[in-house]
Protein 1
Amino acid sequence: MPSKAASKPKTGKKLVIVESPAKSKTIAKYLGEGFVVEASIGHIRDLPQPSDLPADLKKSPIGKFAVDLENGFKPYYVISPDKKKKVSELKAQLKDADELYLATDGDREGEAIAWHLLEVLKPKVPVHRMTFAEITKESLQRALGNLRELDTDLVDAQETRRVLDRLYGYEISPVLWRKVSRGLSAGRVQSVVTRMVVERERERMAFRSAGYWDLLGTFAPDASAGQPFNAKLTAVDGRRVASGRDFNDKGELTAKNVAHLDEAAAKALAEALQQADFAVRSMEHKPYTRRPAAPFTTSTLQQEAGRKLRFSSKSTMQTAQRLYENGYITYMRTDSSALSDEAVNAARRQASELYGPEFVPAAKRVYANKSSNAQEAHEAIRPAGDSFRTPAQVAGALRGDEFKLYELIWKRTVASQMADAKGSTATIKLGATAAGSAAGGQDAEFSASGTVITFRGFLAAYEEGRDESRNDADETDRRLPNVKEGDALVATDVTASGHETSPPPRFTEASLTKEMEERDIGRPSTYASTLSTIMDRGYVRKQGSALIPTWIAFSVIRLLEQHFTSYVDYKFTAGMETGLDRIANGEDKGSEWLKHFYFGDGDDAGLLAIVNNLGEIDARDINSIKIGEDLVLRVGKFGPYLESTVPTLDPKTGEIIEAARANVPEDLAPDELTPAKARELMETAAPEERVLGVEETTGRTIVAKNGRYGPYVTEVIPELTEEEIANQPVEYYKNGKPKPPKKPVKAKPRTGSLFKSMTVDTVTLDEALQIMSLPRVLGADAEGNEITVQNGRFGPYLKKGSDSRSIGSEEEIFTITLEAALEIYSQPKQRGARAAVPPLAEFGDDPVSGKKIVVKEGRFGPYITDGVTNITVPRGTDVEELTHEAAVGLLADKRERGPVKRTAKAPAKRKVAAKK
């Protein structure tokens, strides 16, 4: 790492630079005198948009991507506009420092941030690279004793990944703009993950259910007061009874020599077994052992927080980031499940103290590190420190999501070093011969299993959650009666039960993260951001916890599969991750790897050749999906719609429509759009457009239409004729020559959504003109503030400045008076369906502000306010215990601390010419 000895006098100042302000504050507490800790607030440099490049570079090999294609894919970096002030501050701090410590995270991103700082700050003092997996005093002391050089291989891997993503996105996205829709984006990881979700939906769309029946019986030992238990029919005449796993997704029975019961056979057998003599045929006992799950990696933390806490991946990582930066947990981006010796000892010690020595095994548990990149293999995610703080010990400092996530991490870590859970599993097989004529003589065998936990072991601390899957077996944690072979049993109830096979379950954020990890798609640092991206881009939406692809995602993935096959292939994408790992390990060079990716090599065509030889892409075909025989779904500019491929008779008008259409509701999942549902939508579709008449004052035609967001009315503004355009006033250049006629600015038509009581079929011209006249001015209040009434997304409302108030019904829009509006504004403002809530307590006037002190219920709990300063009621303090003096003191402390500093918004982008 370059550094020069300083010739200036020594000051004793040691400048430490980290990424975030929160991290800098925590570190500053532990480093002590002489250390000054500053935050870069993330990356200070990045690739600019090509449009922001200096004019002379736009026509150079750098101009297309802000990457020099002819010089080893060298990036053209600029200091981000919103980081220029921060860079100046860091340079000022460095001027009188004796040493510089780059203490950014130890992964690729952190290493790259440190390298950019080194390149921009150009320090003339000794520079040290300092990394740590947790922010504790002990960890920082160890880090200061193990300083190292900057890892240029990690920097090369991060830079390669950044350039790779620029090449991928900037070459493929424009194809999506031309053939699907403007504003779409393709990404090396996001497109592949979108494909996973689309493929799962395709499986659900192609799925055909199959029916099957079985029997459930309730049995008890004969002539005793034994506990009744349930058992399920497993075999008829020696043949196993078919279950859901015996059918494929086409609804076909694939298993051989099984008994497939239909409703009639199942009910007949159940009836015949009501009076049958049941007996135990076998009783088997097996020891039961269950081992604890490994400590959390990034992937398993996101999965478990999704299952148990209902956190999104993004929320999980944001919360984990805060816990790490404030010294509560270790670094949260890791694919390692290994624990340090200190952590193992801490977990074992705590388990022994809390649960007893018998809950800790004699030997330490060692979990293998799955990381394919040893240089980036951090520890597992665990509580920070050489001794762990229990949830009770941090309850006073952590609240809400932070406390829940810390508790989850603590439990998992401690449980990982605890003893196995022990028990026994019993399986009873019982049977009888059916009596009667319908099913007489058939031999029926039932089975029941139950597990008894005799030693809870790690389960005393923690139990891992599970994702939904098809054909889940019933839980077996139950106790069965103590019977032996040959014992008689009484059937108190035998009933037939029908079932349908189920389609593959949709992905949740947890199960999709697991799938990404198993397929080696992405890395721990990208899981959460990838999931956020595919939802933000409109490719996937959430319904409850399920991830559902949109129709536009189908079009995008179809285009990519047909014309960029390799770039959405799972193995190819995993191979790219492996390639980046090899670069991080120093086994490959980024420039050579990028050259092969972009320009190709021999028979292996690169991205450039594929883009340049796409041929003709039929956009209509790409955006069409067949639904049944005569219907297709088309992805249009304003959303998906159904279109008939054969002429259709309109039952209302009797006319033949060449290509009848119907909008598809946005909340209808793709697998729910069956041919029958599509036909229903076509039959109930309102007319696309209906002419209502001509407005007398303007002479413009008024029409009612069905739009993407519901029915509406609008006016048709005719375009100017060529003659009218030619007759416009002529403008001249300074040299006297006439300017060519300007294309007239298209006037914006008046529009308005129909009331809920109206339809395109029934709305009248007068009603349409009334709707288009909104908002309606009612008048002004005593201060001269204008009051209007209008219709909005959430219903009709009054508006006075920034103060909006809901009114009862849409019909009131044209009848409400100024007096009625003023009466509404004289009442306390309502929040949703509730009136303004009175304060929880009142304490008279504040001696500083002179305003009344009250306690109110807020989003995050009760708080004290005088209308100017707010302060949350301290945790553990009841509102009833507060006094006037205490409230005044809390407000005074808050004023002294001042307002919370918030990061200013980034200024508008400017063209920059700074260069690497």
Protein 2
Amino acid sequence: MSVFTGWRASLRIARRDAMRAKGRSALVVAMIAVPVLGVTALDVTYRSVTPTTAEQLTAEMGSADALFSDPQMGPIEQMPDGEMYLDIEGGGLENDSPSVDIRTTFPKGSRAISIQSVPASITTAYGIANTDVYEFRTSDKLARGKIDLVRGAYPHGKGEMAATEPFLKSTGLQIGSSTTLRNSGEKYTITGVVERPDELPAEALYADPGAVIAPWKAKADHDKKVLPPNAGPKSWLVKGPEAVGVTWPHIMEANKSGILVKSRQVVLDPPPDSEVPLAKKTSDTYSDSSGELSTALITVIAMTVLEIVLLAGPAFAVGARRSRRQLGLLGTCGGDRRHVRAVVLGGGLVLGGTGAVAGVVAGLGLTAAFRPMIEDWAGQRFGSLSLKPTELLAIAALGLITGLLAAFAPAIVASRQSVLESLTGRRGVRRSSRVLPILGVCMLAIGCAVAVLGGTSGDSALVAGGSITAELGLLACIPVIVGFLGRLGKRLPLSPRMALRDAARNRGRTAPAVAAVMAAVAGSVAIATYMASHSAEAKYDYIPSLAKGTIVVSSADEKAAEHLPLARTAVERNMAVTSKHADFRRVWAGSDCNIYEEGHCGSLELVKPTGAAYSCPLTGKGAEELAARLSADEHKKLMSSPACLDLKESGVFNTDESNIVVADAALLDTYVKLDDPEAAKALAAGTPVLLNPAYAKNGEVTVKAVHQYSEKDRKSWKLHPGKARTTVDKLKVYVAPAKYAATPGIRMILPEKTAERLGLHTRVSGSVYAVAHAPTSAEDQRVYGAIDQAGGGIWVQSDHGPSQREEDTLLLILTLFAGVVTLGAAAITTGLAKADAEADLNTLSAVGATPGVRRRLSGFQCVVVALTGVVLGALAGLVPAVALRLIDLREALKVMRMDPTQSAYTPIVLPWETLGLLVVCIPLLAGALAAAFTRSRLALARRAG
């Protein structure tokens, strides 16, 4: 019998066995197909969402042949792709030449449409919003691909506009709604919804050329109160002569007039360097490295294959043990070990091939079905659904090879089993390897040491190698760990005790499942820990503009301050206000520098005392020497001290560098959150409240005022003519605890009567509110609409804090991924345990065990696998996360020692929510599902032997 004949028989037996055990076969196919599906979907999505050069050109210039623009540099030379250009003298972008009429540089017989944008304020369904308005004939065929119609109609004429979907969602408008351009007073009707295929989140309005900018400019020319439009430069989409287009000679001719041209045909088919003058002057080379596989990508592929092998391997073991009598009969008919191995490997080939094909087909189908959702997530449309046959075949081959690898170990075990054991259903006893755990411990220790060494030396390759080595070492230790678990069940009830002992007695099926869970959880925990740590670092580095949970209503000038009562009413009606308003006033010396030019206005300064106790040691002489000796924690402590907090200050209270605000005790309660009756009494008595103790010496502060008045400030000049007068006053102050030094925007609160006594000027400036949440876009629009009706000149400021939406989404995806793998591995192990323990369960039923014991046993078997794998995976995932953070710490310290005012804080933060879900919720869910889907009654059968 030839080799191929033997394999045909093996494959036929494997196919029939797979058809008989449909449930197990479906499980194996799913375990192989799901990763193949994911890789296929990622490959197709990546290829589709990454635009080709032709698709990029279409997004940039629509269906036109070229894009003409004026960089206003005079005559230029450019590269064929238009990305690099210089003026003839090589002066770069510094030259500023007058603009030219771009239309004079078009090739003869061309047709063109213009694009020009202008920022504008428009009315919305809620109130008022700011957006960009584009004058662009979107109905022209040249615009197709750059702007596409989603629904409705393109705008035509002066009274119509089209809008993007994000703009309509944020403003509450819709097709048929009217909006008014507040700058010009012109009213427009929204006729349709358009989109930019390369930038779906864009919020913008589109009108025909001449519909927005010209009326606005005309009104500004006749009404000096209207500011002229701040329009951007005009560019042109050009359709060249028929069958000619825009060629390289056309571009060179336009360059002589200073016009930059990006031509479709020139970019796709560039001229040789000998015909490009700029290429001779530059030495830049362009290389395509898209085909190179990085070490990280190879590592990911290897770990994915290992994951599938660990998951699917026990399932093949289930089949081999269920078919052991059939395999024994094969031996009695003259078959040897090769044939037994071929049958089991044939199962891997059949199921692996089926899973690979199903995964590729399902991946393509799901990508096509969810294409709109993927495009919205990516923020751009696919140019086309890009399929690379070679890559899809490689992915399918990977699934097929993975199936064979998963069946390899069960095939070896099945071939070593004697014919007698196979026919009687008995299993031989094999002692666990004593060398493997010792080797695993050594690999674990070495891997951790190498990863830490890589972290401290800044070598990411060592971190990756050490992390993988440590994880493989922990994998080798799993059989011993599982065996140890059996000793923990002595005092437990029957079901958990049997589950622990069964896991320890059958390590061959428990260990791979635990390893699969560990591998999946380790990767998720590593990424989650790194992201949580990076998020904590970003949160620490973030400088808030306002105290948390507050908003500030400010007026631009004294006239606008008259509208504050109406503005407060609008805020209280439309925002989630939780307190009464706390009013504050601006304070200054001499003439107001917000009105009069520098050198002709006064200044106010809160003078910091001299001495080491009052100055920040991270600035000035000796700072770099000190930074070289500091650890990250010591540097953080110094940066958080009151003396150094000035380096992080930001303000929104219309104050100068002094950060002095005139207010009463209401501001302490609403904004500062200082609940101290003594502070309130001090303000009432005319004593300032100092929030930063670094400015106080012996309970006093020094206020320096330069009373400089401008002759243009006629009212004040009559009272204070002549040269500037400088005053220095020492004031007794109430010094707040050091933690209030970090209050954004305020260094000292000065009572109004004390400011008047010092000869300072004050005026009503705004109010502070405590709010339940930061204002939404709709709330902002409503408030600004009401403020505009009141006369304008007032704005509402809020702080939304550091954005964490993307990090939270990724953490959720990682948790779900690890949870699904954990449930799958636990389910496989429970199925294998069911196949192995049928005789034991029959015995339990025979001796009177209740039906619920079987359910509870299956549940606890799942919990054992899931919990053990999750805990080990969490520990393994910490190794690369900590090592990578050590690399970040090394880089942060390097930057800090060059600039001592830069933060070196590099925390290591555990993602407790993710860990809680993985360690507690997922194992309990696995156990509950296993118990729910396990039959409680079992038909008695004769026990073999």
Protein 3
Amino acid sequence: MAEPMTIAADPPPKQASPTAYDAFLSYSHADRAIAAGIQRGLHRIGRRVGRLHALRVFRDATDLTASPDLWGKVAEAMDQARYCIVVLSPHSAASEWVDREIAYWLRTRGPEHLLFVVAGGQVKWDRELHRFDPTRSTVALPVLTEPGALPTEPLYVDVTEDAPWDPRAALFREKLTDLAAPIHGKPKYELAGEDLREQRRFRRLRRAAVAGLVLLTVLALIAAVVAVDRQREAVRQRNQAIGLRLVSDTESMLAGARPRDDVRAIQQTLAARQITPDFDEGALLRTLNAEAAVDKIVQTGKPFSTDAFLQDQPAMGESFRTANPTIGVSFGPAGDRILTGGVEMRLWDVRTGSRIDRTFEPQPVALRPVFSPDGRRIAGTTMEGAVQIWDVESGKAAGPPLVGFQGVVNGVVFAPDGRSVAACGADGVIRWWDLDSGRAEVFTGHEGEVSSVAFSPDGRRMVSGGQDTTVRIWNVESPTEPPQVLRRHTRPVSSVGWSPDGRLIASGSSGSAKAAELAPDLGAALLLWDADSGRLIGDPLVGHEGQITSVAFSPDSTELASGATDTTIRLWNTDTGSSAETLTGHTGWVLGVAFARDGRQLASTSWDGTMRVWNVDRAGSLGAPWPSDQGSAKPGYGPVLTSDREGRRLVKQDNENASVWLVDSQTGRSTALVDYPDGSDAGAAITTDGRRVAVAGPDKTVTFYDAETGNQVGGPLTGFGEPVRSLEFDARGTRLATLSTGNVVQLWDAEAASPIGGPFVGPSEAEMVELSADGRLLAVAAGNTAQLWNAESGTPIGGPMTGHGADIRNLVFDPAGTRLLTHSGDSVRLWDVRTGDLVKEIRAQGIWAVAMAPDGSRFVTGEETTLRRWDVRTGEQVGPPMEGHTEMVRSVTISADSRYIVSGSRDQTLRFWDLADGHVVGVPLQGSPGWIEAVWISADNSTVRTIHQELTNEAGAWVWPGPSTWAGRLCDKLAADMSRHQWSEWISPDLEYRPVCPGLPPHPDDS
């Protein structure tokens, strides 16, 4: 027992409880580690499986509870113990408490069950006096040095050298077994044997338990992994379901099956792309194609409609102010700015759709503000019903207000020279001001409100339309002269315009295309007039349902744009009066339309809260003509001799003479390479990267040119006995194969301009030559036969490759150089280039196109209206045929990453397909003026280029967006990213917000 502060008197002894403790440990506080080791050992030695301890050993540190009678508790424990074990050490020899405990034991229990453990020091027995000799013992307790203390010399265990007294140590455990044996009532040998057996049994059980725990842990881990996988799968399925819903909703909106919202449709498609694990990229193309006509959609306010407020004018006025709808729109002369008016006049950046920070003073309420012809000033109206001129850059008034109207000013317009303005108002008057002199004139005659006014191109006349259903032409220089009155409309005229060439006047009123079928006068909503004679030209332009709110002529006067309350914009051919295109997407009244000065873009405003910029140059197609550099000596793109893999650079020969030109399809620039005598044939080859061109002509030479500069590089290849008919570079552009009209084949080092293989004689009437990617193999086609050679040695590989029923059109090596395709109009044959043996023959009528995947896994054929995929190794067809084209497939290519097939057809459409599974990607792209004869896709999948043939036999070239740009092009149509509120409402409140167009500014909702 460790030393307390005081020692109380001995309590009277109690009857021991034989089952309380097997042993009592008496020790000094300083020997706590020794006592703990003894206790642990006695707990373990002889312990049977299932029991907590082999022996119950009292040690004050583990068994004594707090009590005011400490000695009483100790004495009670000693009374309940069968044995007492005392630790003899220098510390315990000096401890009054340990001495008292042993004295109490000897007095109450006797020496029979007293066991000794020596820990540091020694004890010597005094046989005569039956005690430990106090003079020679260093660790004996005082009570044990008294004469007659013990009847005989006791046995003891010395653990002095057994630190740290760990029962797992063999020697210390053996010593503890000496102590444990008498307590267990067994011989040491028997107890040691039992302990060994129990240890072995325990180890077996422990190993089994550990194994079980490991198994349970593994099972738990597996269960956790399964749970995580299931959770991930649940998340994946949830995201997939959300993505499918978004795509379905979008396509329903774009198809008109549910209320249309183009901004939401675009953003939902982009969000689906982010969250859907198995996203169909065709959804991007379908949305992009549906939005092909629009370049930019800008939110200018909130949707507004008069329908709900027809009986409540105050409520309509409040809604009007809150929605801040846009009415008028005007392009700046440079085409980079747009001006809108309504409750507020604002400037916008055309490219980004962002608002240009400009404060106008005084603040206008400009229904239809306009730019001056030079773009430096703006004319609009104020809240007081005056016309005000502002400086565009400063936003300050450029002069005093122009006053005189009694009521609202409906419209204002600059004269073409910018020196005067005219305005019309609800008071039935047109007012004109000379901005230099301040002179003002008044034009009267309308019987009621004047809705619109426009100048003639020379500024000498004006045209106006009003509530009295008339169109009037005024002489600006003679205000008192009666106007020429044009009568045909049966309803108020809301908009007028004068064509830039001065020939035509357009006027818009109200009408119905459906009603016009029963009563033609009811369709007279949009009319064209001869500006000189005032006579109506042709029939009314029928198509809109409702009021024509705005008209605008294109800068070249060939098109007329009209916006109406039926939410559509129509483009009309002014020569024929036919509707060329209908622009849909607005969901509210279209209030304003305006052409950019270059005629390529049209801006519109609507009460749906948006302004849109349309690309009217593309007629709603995603394709557009390649640039044509009219400054080049020979603009245009055909006929093509060869091209690089991406179609960026083409080599053409002029139809009119034999000159050869290099064309950059990105700029349209044509560079003359060489001019041969008229009627001469030429051949050409270009490296895969498009950097170097080789041209062969009638002079029996091959000349190299730098594709960037068009300059000749090094000396020509010479020594040909006949002109070179066909030539081809290898994939690296370091080797060149040539085939002359004399059927002589030769391999050249393109860098050194020296021969490295051949010459050797090819088959008779050979027409084309092809090199493998590494330049080691060479194939030649002659009629319906081909031959394969080792390019360096000139050794034939196998015999002639025969079997085609028509002349061979193409020779195509796979990238690894293990297979060769020979293609004719009636078949494609796959050959093993190691042996020259036929692997597979594919026969069909009308095989016009074939393409090899850059990864060498597949090749694709186009036969009639069908495409098929084939395994390059076996020649077996992969998957079902790919149907969709309605006329013959004329061209096929495969993207550099072997992901997409792109096909062009006589049906004048371009289609994308997935090479892996053959499904069609998106929708066919239309707009090509002719059938597509050639198609290329850039290495980064950003651009598709095509060459088409028109019915007039004229060739042209178009460019189309590739798959890697579809998402970006959709983002380009927006002015702001999706807001968090929109994400929660449109996508899901359970999904974390993700920007769908990170490059765009945040939506105003998030600011």
